[in-house]
Amino acid sequence: MATKSSRVIKHVLALRNRHFFGLDVLLLLLTPTLALLLRTDGLNVQPQGWDTLTRYVPGLLIYTGIALLVRLAVFYRFGLYSRYWRYASIEELDQISWAVFVSSAFIGLVVLLARTSTLTQMGFPLWNFPRSVVFIDALLVLFLLGGIRFSVRLANRWQREDGNEPGKRALIMGAGDAGAMTAREMRDSSRIGFEPIGFVDDDPGKKNMRIHGIPVLGNRHDIPRLVQNHKIQYVIIAMPTAPGREIREIVRSCEQAGVQTKILPGIYELLDGTVNVSNLRNVDIEDLLRREPVQTDVASVQRLLQGKRVLVTGGGGSIGSELCRQIRRCRPAEIIIVGHGENSVFEIYNELSRLEAKERPSHPVTIHAVIADIRFAWRIQTIMARYRPHVVFHAAAHKHVPLMEGNPAEAITNNVLGTRNVLQAAQQVDVERFVMISTDKAVNPTNVMGASKRTAELLVHQAALATGKPYVAVRFGNVLGSRGSVILTFKQQIADGGPVCVTHPDMTRYFMTIPEAVQLVLQSAVMGHGGEVFVLDMGEPVKIMDLARDLITLSGLEVGIDIEIAITGLRPGEKLYEELFIPGESYDRTEHHKIFIATNASSFVKPTLDRSVDMLIAAAEFMDEPAILRHLQNLIPEAKLVDANERTVAGHTAPSIVHSEVITSAPLHQS
After folding, report:
1. Strand 260-263 to strand 194-200: parallel, antiparallel, or no bridges (unpaired)?
2. H/E element holding 156?
3. Of 100, 346, 361, 464, which cross-links 530 as Cys (Cβ 3.0–4.6 Å)?
4. Catalytic-residue membership of 441
């Protein structure tokens, strides 16, 4: 019997659209007769009553011919012969329903006209044909047509269930749209390798409900019990909009249950809204730090950038390249990618060019790749004069604190001189809007990098006062996954077998994902009027020690057993915690609840700024480190910079190993 059923399944799965066309012809020849028999109770009629039934035969033949031609034409027009029915869904059922409805309406109209026209007096056979046959025939066609096609999907499911290689047994956390999509793709495609056993959802109204035939078995607190009772191998987290707090709780439950986890990326990674099982990946630290999605006014950002020429400095960097990606979605006329590193510029240029060629939009975006060092004023002036951008996003900067402590002249020439060059060139071509990417390290800086970025902020405010245009700075903290970030450093240390080096047990930092930060930068660009500092709400600061522990755990290892955590001491210029606002800045939330604004930021610009910056740049060009520190301190009184001798020896204490039992801070997924 099993062999026979397997043969039947194979034959059903072998059906193609040409076979469905032949089956439809046969079906449409038979359903009118069956409809008439049901209408006249002809199925039970006595032999002597056949004369009553046969008087409808001429009309039945004409009706059958009309219905056949009309339905086949409508079915073809609705694409019923160009579908892949193995993965038929509600969309295909909707198409079948509309095709039957439209064809039936047309057939009914023909029958009605035939009964009321002069053809009636001529004895046309349809004049006495029962009108209700049209309705009965439509129901039969809908039922049989859908049944034949959806049998292919059913056969596909049976074949998977009878396969020799069953998928890994999985629970799906989240019974929303993403969870339902995940379950359907798992069930319909054997290549995915998962068998959905049930859903887990915290909505009590969904318990014991079925989605695509799969039951909702409980909530997140039931995960350990469900894993044991149903022999679950994986928990799939299908909650793209869930904040990190919820993800941490779910991951903790899965760890307690001893089950592996996979996750669909967060909404920031899926900016186009496309969610599918091919996105599944291991849970990463970014998921544990994820926050609730930020609602941005996409329309206002698009109005700002659509049809404009937009220039991005540092366009090959982590922030710059993501800026280019999101700007392209707003359909500017041109994007000018300016960067010093040719490889990174080449990569983002190729990526955007491929997308334009693939999508073939009606209004294509012209992409330019320009290799340039912002420290050369003549080069930046030439670029600005050639492309004459309407909007400039200035993301080029040296950002690594320890490196800039050892190379202060580079920090000044790139972050200060470079910013001044870009600002002056922008003013010469009358750039409409200028947005500089700043950092929380510019607040009460204790290092050269932060002080150089604070000086750059002052230059932007000065330009805003001079032009009266919306030249603004946007300040935020660490971005997850950026080049040289602590996350990537920790991952490399784990891959090398440890230890994972943390400079201080109490060190905290603010974190954002790159797409999230860029969305808010674009939103800030819309709100700027000139001279403001926008500060992004980055949620609660995160302990670096907790970050290290969670990364080790997510790697399947244990702190103190597989990997050690070493306390290495604060590095030159490092703070234990970062601040967001400078003393004296008057700040408030904007109409966007995730963005703060310091409206009086330009009031900190001193009349002597140009002269002070000239002396700072001169000191950098002569590599005079004590003079650099002295001029920075004069420019930024709130800075707490140490002299060169202290910087060369600070922070080089021997690392101490911290075992798991010594760490008192709760890991992120327990907070």
Report:
1. unpaired
2. helix 132-161
3. 464
4. yes
Q: 392 pairs with which residues across the strands?
A: 311, 434
Query: Same domain, yes or no, for 85 and 203?
Result: no
Q: What is the pLDDT of residue 231?
A: 87
What is the reported pLDDT for 374?
Answer: 96
pLDDT at 211: 80
The DSSP symbol for 364 reads P
Same domain, 49 and 140: yes
Long-range Cβ contacts of 596-599 (<8 Å, 24+ apart): 596/534, 596/535, 596/536, 596/537, 597/527, 597/532, 597/533, 597/534, 597/535, 598/532, 598/533, 598/534, 598/535, 599/532
Greater confidence (48 vs 352) lies with 352
Q: What is the pLDDT confidence band of residue 663, given thresholds at 50, 70 and 90?
A: very low
Supply the pLDDT for residue 184. Answer: 76
Burial of 33 (0-12, 13-18, 19+ CB in 10 A): middle
Full 3-state SS string of 182-249: HHHHHHHCHHHCEEEEEEECCCHHHCCCEECCEEEEECHHHHHHHHHHCCCCEEEECCCCCCHHHHHH
CA dihedral 608, 611, 617, 622 (to 10 degrees): -130
Residue 85: band (very low, low, confident or very high) from pLDDT cuts 50, 70, 90? low
pLDDT-based confidence at residue 628 (cuts at 50, 70, 90): very high
Q: What is the pTM of this model?
A: 0.66
- Closest to 669 measured CA to CA, from 530, 543, 567: 543
Domain encompassing residue 133: 2-161
Is 550 part of any domain? no
The helix (run of H) or strand (run of E) holding residue 169 is strand 168-173
Of 206, 262, 308, 441, which residue is the catalytic one? Answer: 441
Pairing mode of beta strands 471-476, 533-536:
parallel
137, 38: one domain:
yes
Any domain includes 547: no
Task: Calculate the average pLDDT of the chain.
Answer: 79
**DSSP E strands: which ranges in 330-390?**
334-339, 366-371
* Torsion angle defined by CA atoms of residues 261, 267, 270 and 276, in that order, rounded to the nearest 10 degrees: 50
121 and 33 together in one domain = yes
